[in-house]
Amino acid sequence: MNFSCDVDVFRGWAEAVCFGTFSERVRRLYNVANVYKRAQGEGTIRAVEGLEEFRARHREALVWENLLPVGARRRNWRQTLVSDGFVVVRHPDLAATLAIADEFAERVRLIAA
Question: Which of 48, 65, 87, 102 is deepest in the core (most CB within 10 A)?
Fold first, then answer.
């Protein structure tokens, strides 16, 4: 909701709990997609392919990037909800949002060895 409405849901929640009101103006401005990634291979992240190109093309649509950095150990998929990382993208147009998310899923790769 934070990313789709440009509203601080946490501040609104605190206001509602403390004062019984919610004064945040909520209107949906964007469609939002989360894309989770698992690295290919085992062990340590050795490379992230395609990320710089993706950033250059979609900088304004990329609102949260949380990928394991090069040198980090892969996460145990049985013990995590976020896999080896994820991004959140947004755009006012649903088709554009889905296309951006698909591009990230297809072109960005985490490589482990």
Answer: 87
End-to-end CA distance of the chain, in Å? Answer: 37
Which pLDDT score is estimated for 74? 95
Quick one: residue 59, left, alpha or beta (phi over 0 = left, psi -120 to 50 = alpha)? alpha
Residue from 104, 69, 98 nearest 84 by CA: 69
Q: What is the pLDDT of residues 29-64, one digit of tens each?
A: 999 999 999 999 999 999 999 999 999 999 999 999
Point out which residues pair with 40 in neighbouring strands: 111
d(CA 113, CA 109) in angstroms, rounded, equals 13
Strand order in the sheet with 62-67: 31-36, 85-91, 62-67
